[in-house]
Design goal:
It contains 22 helices and 16 strands. By secondary structure, it is of the alpha/beta class. The chain has two domains: 251 residues, Rossmann fold; 230 residues, no CATH class. The strands form six sheets. A five-stranded parallel sheet has the order 4-7-10-1-11. Strand 15 and strand 16 form a beta hairpin. Helix 13 crosses helix 14 and helix 21 crosses helix 22. The longest helix is centred in the middle third of the chain and has 21 residues.
């Protein structure tokens, strides 16, 4: 890449091109060439995009290699906008432009009359400027109130009056977003929301590569890579993409939600505010809590009471994780603990970050969003607990509750208090260690493990829990095979004053 400060006039630019220091090419060719270089070099094409390596990205690469305009179709929260903004990395670091030109004119082939006149007058002495790649991405959210003047342009009578020009003069034009995106990437989010007559205005730029303003014989052969996003379910809910426009879009690429819990955890760890600065306690998130947070979204996407057409955004686990950590912070600050370790029960405190993230079907509306959210959390805990507890034997803990034991734990209870109560339950702390809490773990981490085991047994209906956080025997105990030759040490201990509590 040449040093822009060394090329300041049109003559300098011509000589740099002759020496091969600067290349002239269209946006499509520029993106294609830079993409080929990246593919040859290996590595990550689009940093921050997770879970699309085998599905979406190959289709996108094919579209760019084919020099297509394209559209990303997918439900909300599927990284469509993030993917579009990552295309900037495929642009050159700088390109030469006419300084002060609203449409980023190429000094070697200007298309607006003002730039043509300037080049004709000054020749090789014409000054040039340089445009950075980040300024070459223009994004517009489509809304029903967008006008053709906003998108394409209009006549500016004030400019005409001040310059003493006729309205038919090209210099009276006020350029819209599309001409101002000349030699750039122009992205339109939520394309179906754009009025049909505005979509018609995009025909020429997609097929013939030019626009006309207000019917005047002003032809602007723009150089633009057009990219769109849309929710496929919005075609009938709020609007539609008109057929002639769809026909002119080269590639239609479908996005999707993460297909594995591991990919989802990577996204949440990347996007959520987990590592916090300031005077608060240090944060440490147990793996089982992170899995439960992700599993909530997976459960919601397959729940029949949640509207599939609306989808469940990946923003749900991101928001939930932030709320869960905040609840753990609050407890650690009050308890004077130096590390904030989220527990599974903290997820229930994050319900406000869930209920606004999904739309309900009629059956779900009857129950209410908060009730559905609680059930999703319980199902998520059950799914995750099966992976941690299946190979373990929790019978000693279950029998302790079956024989009348109960355990009352509070949401704000310190780690030391949780462990003090937990040690009264035979085998509970040992089971928490075997279930994934590392040996020698801090008290807050071990307390989180105890909480996970109890919530896992409750979610899988091995024990019950009251609204006041009282764990007790299951209301529908499961028949278990008797152990062979039980010893006295194996007999469950019934705590003094143990009282059975029932789930309301």
């Amino acid at each position: 890449m040449p040093n822009p400060s060394a090329i300041s006039t049109l003559g300098d630019l011509r000589r740099a091109i002759e020496r091969g220091e600067v290349r002239r090419r269209s946006v499509h060719v520029e993106v294609r060439d830079n993409l080929i270089e990246k593919l040859r070099g290996g590595g990550t094409l689009f940093p921050g995009i997770v879970g699309y390596d085998e599905t979406v990205l190959p289709q996108l690469v094919n579209a760019l290699l084919s020099r297509h305009h394209f559209i990303l179709l997918g439900l909300r929260g599927q990284a469509k906008t993030r993917l579009l903004r990552a295309l900037v990395t495929l642009l050159d670091e700088f390109i030469p432009v006419m300084p002060g030109c609203e449409i980023n004119d190429d000094p070697l082939a200007p298309i607006c009359s003002a730039c043509r006149a300037q080049v004709a007058e000054a020749g090789d002495r014409t000054p040039i400027g340089w445009l950075e790649r980040d300024a070459r991405y223009v994004e517009k959210l489509a809304t029903p109130d967008v006008t053709i003047a906003d998108m394409i342009g209009d006549i500016d009578p004030i400019k005409a009056a001040r310059a003493g020009l006729q309205l038919s003069n090209e210099l009276t034009m006020h350029y819209g977003l599309l001409p101002r995106a000349n030699r750039s990437i122009f992205a339109i989010n939520e394309l179906p929301d754009l009025a049909g007559k505005i979509q018609v205005g995009l025909f020429n730029i997609l097929q013939e590569g030019d626009v006309q303003i207000k019917g005047y014989p002003v032809r602007l052969p723009l150089d633009v890579l057009m990219a769109f996003t849309a929710n496929p379910e919005d075609y009938t809910a709020r609007g539609k993409i008109i057929t002639p426009l769809k026909d002119r879009i080269g590639s239609e690429i479908r996005t999707h939600y993460p297909v594995s819990r591991g990919d989802a955890q990577v996204i949440t760890a990347q996007e959520a505010w987990i590592t916090r600065q300031g005077p608060g306690p240090r944060t440490e998130v147990p793996p089982f809590v992170a899995e439960v947070v992700e599993e909530i979204a997976f459960q919601a996407r397959q729940d029949r009471r949640v509207d599939k057409r609306s989808g469940v955004s990946q923003r749900l686990p991101i928001s939930v994780m932030e709320n869960v950590i905040s609840n753990a912070e609050r407890r650690a600050i009050v308890s004077g603990e130096g590390v904030a370790v989220p527990r599974v029960t903290d997820v229930y405190s994050a319900l406000p970050s869930m209920t606004g993230k999904f739309e309900l079907e009629y059956e779900g509306e009857l129950k209410g969003a908060e009730t559905i959210a609680r059930e999703l959390v319980r199902n998520a805990v059950a799914s995750v607990a099966e992976g941690y507890l299946t190979h373990l034997d929790p019978r000693r803990v279950i029998e302790w509750f079956d024989l009348g034991g109960s355990l009352q734990l509070g949401d704000t209870m310190s780690a030391d208090d949780v462990l003090t109560h937990a040690r009264a339950v035979q085998g509970l702390v040992d089971l928490a260690t075997e279930a994934g809490t590392p040996k020698g773990a801090s008290a807050p981490m071990l307390a989180a493990g105890v909480d996970f085991v109890l919530e896992g047994l409750y979610a899988t209906k091995k024990i019950s829990r009251s609204d006041e956080r009282g764990y007790h025997a299951s209301d529908t105990p499961v028949r278990r095979p008797a152990r062979e030759s039980p010893s006295l040490e194996d007999e469950p201990r019934i705590p003094a004053g143990g009282k059975k509590k029932y789930y309301n």
